[in-house]
TrEMBL record:
Subcellular location field: Membrane
MF GO annotations: transmembrane transporter activity
Organism, as annotated: Aspergillus rambellii
Protein name per its UniProtKB record: CRAL-TRIO domain-containing protein
A Pfam family it matches: AA_permease_2
Membrane found in the keyword field: yes
Length: 963
């Protein structure tokens, strides 16, 4: 974060400073630098907010939705619910705007309210759904303005034949007009909004008076009691909720003032007032106009069938009896519609600019630029205009498809509201927000800092009740925003907003994960003697991916004597949020650890796995927190290298070696330990067999066979690691998790031993993260319930969520096919575990040290190439060189495949054979065969494919970033 000087904010200094100084200091308390001109006062920002909402005008444009799905009565009651729900929602939004009046809005509030371990990811997703909502909202406003003008042309010229491309051209014209006004600068927009506010209010009366005076009045029973299910939805209630989306959209954009906050004087007071006053004013005007239209609309069927596409134009025509009169009344709606586009461009571009400023979008360096001559984010304005124009092209292909953009507005904006409203509800009900600052810090309401209420705040139980009502309302709106407006659903009338909304979120998550992966790789490269230039964010640490600007040095891959901990490493760890004490701890554990130690450990840990997939599992395990992920993977590598010595004591110390040691009577203790280890294998205390319905390898633990006194802790730990490492060889991309069945049949307290359980939990939580798909605890007796309460307390909540208790075979068959479940578990497969004894000479290749060393040298060379290509990948991504990124990623994929193939060459020289090898389940080149001569599950699709002869699943290359 850029260091911003904070001057005193005591009452005396506030009294002597100018308004701009106070606003600048207020923004600095939020960690932001004031760079935009504050040209909006309370009246102009109220006008801005009112004309973007344009509720009574918007109802005319969206009148068809609540009328066709709800009827007259449905339109009234859905409007009332939408008004109340919107007001509750924006009371909460106003509270947040008063606490932190920044253009970022929702994603900044999410960052300041979310728990630390979820803060970055949640704020990133919130930022993107806000981008979706506002970009879709701007395109929707422009689309409505363009097609309304086209509808007026149809009304004026009955022989005019409209074309979709003409509506798109008018849309573009409205956007270009909005662009010109937005680039005017010098406070022109704020002055214009004050004028438009007057037009907004006077225009209301200009339409309401002739409408009520000249129109034919319907009866109150027709207005308040007639419901309609024009979309043939399952029930009238569902139809009513679906139709309510029109009223909800009429209130869309209520947070517009928030995104202009950095251009508003006294924003912490003016913005909340503007938000709430605009909801009250627009809600009142909208409700009055809705009642008037429903009473005076005349022939409903004719209005709905109007060729203009907008029933209100036909209603005006029926009332006035003349085209000129109808056009005159419609022109008021059209003027506000076009001016709404102007304001929408401003608010949408500011939200995008703020998110880019915090590095949340690709190309953030470009989109966060502020023109010094205009004091405007011109690049974000241009990009927003371009996105709108591109979305306008959809209208040429299908106007119905573009209507889904309206639903994306609702789903996107209300999803962002949901996140921050829920977080605020949690914080306020747990008393974590202060009325006044408690400490001496000059920074508040930023991630990790103190939370303090702003000038506007609903105290006590009333605030909690309003917050709860808003939360319930938002959930309802999001749910019904994805519904189609009519049945049966076809490709033409399908509501694709769910695809647009969640598709964008999915792509955002991919971008986020890849960016975090690059940054984690960057720190690991530093440990491997690659030098970086680091850059600090000038703002908050939201979207901090890609902060490491790579710069290769001549010491990229150097001798084993090079120390792993350098000043560059220390700075990089500081940049990702590690404290000084944590950095010192990292330095201590890296003492006497060389570059080659870590490089070899990383390659050994990867084995036949994709290194990117390996790192992503550590990232997911720590919620993409870079500091925690790096700490976890480093300690895991050193655990493998120095603590349990996996390569030396587990892989080299094979089953055959254990058999040989058990026969060697010269060392009785070693022979006893070896015999105890083999006993675990022979009895089948734990075995691997088959796959579950998801294609995951299944491991079965027969708990009743464990006798605490039968073996030492060293033996049982060795056995556990032996099973885990052998199971890793069964993982076939894209499947990278396992299913474990703990068969508790016959379990008694005499079988219980806590130490091995703790060791298993330590392995899966700290050293093999995200490797467990499902854990099935089968047929547990009642005495286990108390034991489970203890064990559950040691486990991460994520792992606990993967645990399922089963008691009958049919329960297990929900996860494993009946014909793949052994009979001992109640399944239909006639298979019994039998251990295959080691054979002398099966590890003969391990004695060929010359070939082994040559293959390992080749592996190290490939590893060095991977480091180089990774450094090039990071550098190209930081420079936003898309062509170079694509080329380097293709090169990396080839290197990663070479690394995988090399592993299977090295494997016979470095890993002793085990039972799975002797049964030919694990075959040369990484092939896995569980069911010879039968159908084998296609793990990449979940379908069954017939395989002639020996069925096998072949290891295939993983994508660079398999999310």
């Amino acid at each position: 974060m850029e260091q911003i000087e904070l001057q005193s904010t005591d009452p005396e200094s506030r009294g002597t400073g100018s308004k701009n100084d106070r606003d600048r200091l207020g923004l600095a308390r939020l960690g932001k630098k004031s760079v935009l001109q504050r040209s909006f006062g309370i009246l102009s920002i109220l006008g801005f907010s009112c004309t973007i909402l344009a509720t009574w005008e918007g109802l005319f444009a969206l009148f068809l939705m609540p009328l066709s799905n709800g009827g007259s009565a449905g339109a009234i009651y859905s409007y009332i619910l939408a008004w109340i729900g919107t007001f509750c929602t924006f009371v909460v939004i106003a509270e947040l705007a008063s606490m932190a009046p920044t253009s970022g809005g929702q994603y900044h509030w999410c960052a300041m309210l979310a728990p630390p371990h979820m803060m970055k990811f949640l704020s990133y997703i919130t930022g993107w759904v806000t981008v979706i909502g506002w970009q879709a909202g701007f395109a929707s406003a422009a689309y409505l303005a363009g097609t309304e003008i086209q509808g007026a042309a149809i009304l004026a010229y009955s022989n005019y034949t409209p074309h979709a491309w003409q509506g798109t051209l008018i849309l573009w014209a409205a956007v270009v007009l909005a662009l010109g006004i937005n680039l005017g600068g010098g406070g022109f927009l704020s002055r214009l909004e004050t004028v438009v506010l007057v037009v907004h209010i006077l225009g209301f009366f200009g339409i309401l008076i002739p409408l009520t005076y000249m129109g034919r009045h319907r009866s109150s029973s027709e207005v308040f009691q007639e419901f309609l299910n024009g979309g043939h939805l399952p029930t009238q209630g569902v139809s009513w909720f679906v139709g309510m989306m029109g009223s909800v959209f009429a209130f869309a954009g209520g947070d517009a003032a928030v995104h202009m906050a950095e251009e508003v004087q006294n924003a912490s007071v003016a913005v909340p007032r503007a938000i709430l006053l605009s909801i009250l004013i627009n809600g009142t005007l909208g409700f009055s106009m809705l009642i008037a239209v429903l009473f005076c609309m005349g022939d409903i069927e004719t209005a709905l069938a109007t060729p203009t596409g907008y029933p209100y134009m036909e209603i005006f025509h029926q009332i006035t009896g003349s085209v000129s009169g109808a056009l005159g009344m419609s022109s008021v709606v059209l003027i506000i519609g076009v001016t709404s586009v102007i304001g929408m461009l401003a608010a949408t571009s500011r939200q995008l600019w703020a998110f880019a400023r915090d590095r949340g979008v690709p190309g953030w360096r470009i989109w966060s630029h502020v023109s010094t001559s205009r004091a405007l984010p011109t690049n974000s304005i241009y990009l927003t205009m371009a996105i709108c124009c591109l979305l306008g092209l959809i209208n040429i292909g299908s106007s119905v498809a573009l209507n889904d953009v309206v639903s994306m507005t609702v789903s996107g904006l209300y999803t962002s509201y949901l996140i921050v409203v829920a977080l605020l509800f949690y914080r306020r009900t747990t008393g974590q927000i202060s009325r006044i600052p408690q400490g001496d810090s000059m920074v508040a309401n930023v991630p990790g800092a103190e939370l303090v209420w702003g000038p506007f705040h609903v105290p006590g139980i009333w605030g909690a009740m309003v917050n709860a009502c808003a939360l319930i309302y938002i959930l309802i709106i999001i749910f019904f925003s994805f519904w189609p407006t009519q049945l049966p659903v076809t490709a033409e009338n399908m509501n694709y907003s769910v695809v647009g909304t969640w598709g964008t979120i999915f792509l955002a998550v991919l971008y986020y994960a890849e960016a975090k992966l690059r940054q984690l790789w960057g720190i690991l490269l530093l440990l491997n003697a690659v030098s970086f230039e680091t850059e600090q964010s000038t703002e908050t640490k939201i979207g901090e991916a890609d902060r490491l600007s790579l710069k290769r040095t001549e010491t990229t891959v150097s001798a084993s004597s090079v120390s792993t901990f350098t000043p560059q490493v220390s700075q990089a760890l500081k940049n990702i949020g590690m404290s000084a004490s944590e950095i010192r701890s990292i330095k201590e554990i890296l003492h006497n650890t060389t570059v080659d130690d870590l490089r070899l450990c990383l390659l050994n840990n990867a084995k036949n796995d994709n290194p990117d997939a390996l790192l992503l599992r550590f990232l997911r395990a720590r919620k993409f927190d870079l500091a925690k992920s790096f700490n976890m993977i480093l300690r895991s590598m050193l655990w493998r290298l120095k603590t349990v010595k996996v390569e030396e004591k587990v892989l080299l110390n094979s089953e055959l070696k254990a058999l040989q040691e058990s026969r060697d009577k010269s060392n009785p203790h070693e022979a006893k330990e070896a015999e105890a280890f083999l006993a675990q294998l022979r009895m089948g205390k734990c075995y691997q067999h088959g796959c579950d319905k998801q294609g995951r390898p299944v491991g079965v633990v027969r708990v009743k066979l464990h006798k605490p006194s039968a073996q030492s802790s060293e033996v049982i730990n060795r056995f556990i690691l032996h099973v885990i490492e052998s199971t890793r060889l069964l993982l076939v991309p894209p499947v990278d998790t396992v299913t474990i069945v703990f068969d508790m049949t016959g379990f008694t307290l005499s079988n219980m031993e806590y130490a091995p359980v703790k060791f298993i939990i330590e392995c899966f939580q700290d050293n093999y993260p995200e490797s467990l798909g499902t854990m099935l605890i089968h047929n547990a007796p009642w005495v286990f319930s108390g034991i489970w309460k203890v064990i559950k307390g040691w486990m991460d909540p994520v792992i606990v969520s993967k645990v399922h208790f089963t008691y009958k075979a049919k329960d297990l068959c929900q996860f494993i096919d009946h014909d793949k479940l052994p009979k001992e578990l109640g399944g239909g497969e006639d298979w019994t575990y039998q251990y295959t004894e080691p054979v002398d000479g099966e590890n003969a290749l391990m004695d060929d040290t010359v070939t082994r060393d040559a293959l390992q040298a080749e592996r190290l060379k490939i590893g060095e190439e991977l480091l180089r290509s990774t450094s090039q990948w990071i550098k190209a991504a930081n420079e936003r060189n898309d062509a170079e990124v694509k080329a380097v990623k293709a090169k990396r994929d080839e290197i990663i495949e070479q690394l995988r193939l090399n592993y299977w060459k090295v494997d016979p020289y470095t890993r002793g054979r085990h039972d799975l090898d002797r049964k030919n389940i694990v075959q040369d080149g990484g092939k896995v065969e569980f069911y010879p001569g039968t159908t084998s599950p296609d793990v990449s699709s979940g379908s069954e494919v017939k395989v002639p002869g020996i069925a096998h699943v072949e290891q295939t290359k993983r994508n660079a970033i398999p999310i």
